[in-house]
What we know:
Layout: H1 8-23, H2 37-50
Helix pairs in contact: 1-2
Amino acid sequence: xxxxxxxxxxxxxxxxxxxxxxxxxxxxxxxxxxxxxxxxxxxxxxxxxxxxxxxxxxxxxx
Length: 62
């Protein structure tokens, strides 16, 4: 089973977002505080994707 590949800069971006999450400063697009770890990771990946960093494409629904 192969592992999903993210660039080093994308990993750094997710790390920055997780740091904000752990400090309690991360907000979602609606302005509410993020309380879910999975949501924080999703925000980090989304921001990395917006910056054009190497992130695998979103999974397509069946």
